[in-house]
Task: inverse folding
């Protein structure tokens, strides 16, 4: 047995590459991380992280409701997120001052509904795993049929952000500046909230509704600290998000072999821990660098 | 003026009400091609509303606004705009160069593709406002004067015929304000773009201004400085007696208690200790030599 082989089997426990749930987990996780990173960069730029978090709570209500009705969790997460985004727009998420209020109101209502529906879920269906699945995710139990749907929804969200790249950036810099350029800032904001709902829904399937904020805001915040160009920030965020998610899946799989009692630790914990580590590392160079003079382009 | 053709901007009886209050009351004036016009008035006089109306961001209740002889259309590349308060986040991953480029195509769909023409247009504009030295820095980390230059380049890069600026000198020290005014005068000549700039202090604009639009209580008078800044004209505008003083070539318009407050904010050299006591202004800050 070569040393390389021994190292590999130590890093990657046998069966990882051939396990069907692992394949599904990697695809769904990568899609969720990519969409969340792309959308997340603009979420942080626009100062809508709190709105993003509130959407995760609405998604939780939707996801648990869908399970109660016997539908897939993903459809519930996404529909819940979209309804939440619509509600926030109506209450006034577009106005900077109304934003916190709108978000807080929607968040409170959604969490209350989640509590009710999860209670009904666990009492009527006698499935104790529902709470864990909705709030903290169970990526290894995702149905393979979800894969094409999540890829399609992810593509829609990324395409929407790509199409609105410049108007979204300009209205994030200053809404008045964008309006003077002829950008329909309200419509741009509404479409963006839609993309945000999709990102949150996809992440909720991967690492749970509550923790999807971490995948949305964490990689984006780390990338924004590390680069001074938006394009690079998006690329960096995608790399941080997808690498954290894939490694999280690997570590969780491995943990079946070393964790006490052979129970396996949750993927969500590893993903969030890796994202936080990336955020910590991203602050190191920025601390030394001050204003960098440049020559354009 | 000698410029032929229709005026770049023409307001005729423009009237705007906000929340039951008449903010603009029958405002009429015209700006000709390449002209530098100062829009002067105290806070709350209606300057911002007027500029937003010209941009099509504020609906008219009566009257008309014509840009280049055409009725107002909402999205017009013919008008550049520098808003009053642009708070640029220091952590935003946006270089000064990128913000100028967004002035060219920020309203377009899709991710910007590298293009020689786009880059040349942006480089030329960055050079025209003297921003080459900090074009690669994060725009949110630049000084107020540097940001103002970048915002002017952003507004001008699409080569508009009219440039609107809302209080661009408000947060700048005297030196930076003079630099910005000089820059605007130079660029407006070079690119033949008309400038309509709002300010509460007329003095920094005196050397470059072709015409002045003086606005008070939503009503406006327009003409050359000599025609407008007179006690009889401004008293009629304010509907009460107004003093116009000229001290060492600087103009002071004293229309009421609120204006006295203004005087104390940037005219230490023209209002001496004697007058300050007389006008019951706060004492000079220490170390500010007259």
Result:
């Amino acid at each position: 047995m070569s040393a390389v082989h021994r190292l590999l089997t130590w890093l990657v426990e046998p069966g990882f590459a051939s396990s069907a749930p692992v394949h599904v987990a990697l695809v769904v996780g990568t899609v969720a991380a990519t969409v969340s990173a792309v959308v997340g960069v603009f979420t942080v730029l626009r100062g809508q992280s709190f709105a993003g978090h509130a959407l995760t709570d609405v998604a939780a209500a939707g996801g648990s409701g869908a399970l109660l009705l016997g539908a897939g969790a993903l459809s519930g997460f996404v529909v819940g997120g979209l309804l939440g985004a619509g509600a926030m727009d109506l209450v006034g998420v577009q106005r900077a001052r109304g934003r916190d209020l709108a978000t807080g109101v929607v968040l409170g209502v959604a969490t209350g509904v989640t509590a009710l529906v999860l209670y009904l879920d666990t009492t009527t269906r006698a499935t104790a795993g529902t709470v864990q699945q909705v709030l903290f995710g169970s990526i290894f139990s995702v149905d393979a049929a979800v894969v094409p749907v999540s890829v399609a929804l992810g593509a829609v969200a990324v395409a929407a952000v790509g199409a609105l790249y410049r108007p979204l950036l300009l209205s994030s810099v200053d809404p008045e500046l964008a309006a003077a350029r002829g950008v329909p800032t309200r419509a741009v904001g509404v479409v963006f909230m839609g993309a945000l709902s999709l990102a949150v829904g996809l992440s909720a399937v991967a690492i749970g509704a509550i923790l999807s904020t971490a995948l949305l805001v964490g990689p984006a915040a780390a990338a924004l600290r590390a680069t001074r160009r938006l394009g690079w920030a998006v690329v960096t965020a995608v790399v941080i998000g997808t690498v954290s998610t894939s490694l999280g899946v690997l570590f969780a799989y491995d943990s079946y072999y070393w964790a006490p009692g052979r129970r396996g630790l949750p993927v969500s914990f590893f993903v969030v821990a890796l994202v936080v580590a990336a955020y910590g590392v991203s602050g190191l160079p920025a601390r030394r660098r001050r204003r960098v003079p440049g020559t354009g382009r | 003026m000698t410029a032929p053709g229709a005026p770049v901007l023409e307001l005729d009886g423009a009237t705007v009400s906000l929340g039951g209050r008449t903010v603009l009351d029958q405002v009429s004036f015209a700006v000709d091609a390449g002209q530098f016009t100062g829009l002067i008035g105290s806070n709350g006089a209606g300057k911002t509303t007027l500029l937003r109306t010209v941009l099509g961001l504020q609906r008219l209740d009566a009257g008309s606004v014509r840009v280049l002889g055409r009725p107002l259309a909402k999205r017009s590349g013919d008008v550049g705009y520098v808003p009053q308060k642009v708070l640029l986040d220091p952590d935003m991953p946006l270089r000064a160069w990128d913000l100028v480029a967004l002035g060219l195509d920020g309203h377009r769909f899709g991710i910007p593709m590298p293009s020689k023409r786009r880059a040349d247009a942006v480089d030329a504009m960055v050079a025209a406002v003297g921003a080459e030295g900090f074009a690669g820095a994060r725009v949110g980390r630049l000084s107020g004067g540097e940001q103002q230059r970048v915002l002017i380049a952003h507004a001008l890069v699409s080569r508009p015929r009219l440039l609107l600026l809302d209080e661009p000198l408000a947060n700048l020290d005297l030196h930076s304000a003079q630099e910005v005014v000089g820059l605007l005068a130079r660029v407006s000549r070079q690119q033949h773009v008309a400038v309509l700039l709002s300010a509460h202090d007329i003095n920094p604009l005196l050397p470059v201004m072709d015409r002045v639009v003086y606005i008070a209580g939503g009503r406006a008078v327009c003409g050359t400085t000599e025609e407008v800044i007179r006690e009889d004209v401004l008293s009629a505008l304010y509907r009460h007696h107004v003093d116009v003083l000229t001290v060492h070539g600087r103009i002071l318009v004293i229309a009421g208690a609120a204006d006295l407050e203004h005087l104390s904010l940037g005219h230490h050299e023209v209002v001496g200790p004697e007058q300050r006591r007389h006008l019951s202004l706060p004492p000079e800050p220490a170390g500010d030599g007259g």
Remarks:
- The domain at 3-291 of chain A is CATH 1.10.3470.10 (ABC transporter involved in vitamin B12 uptake, BtuC).
- Chain A is about 80% helix and 0% strand.
- Residues 96-124 of chain A form the longest helix (29 residues).
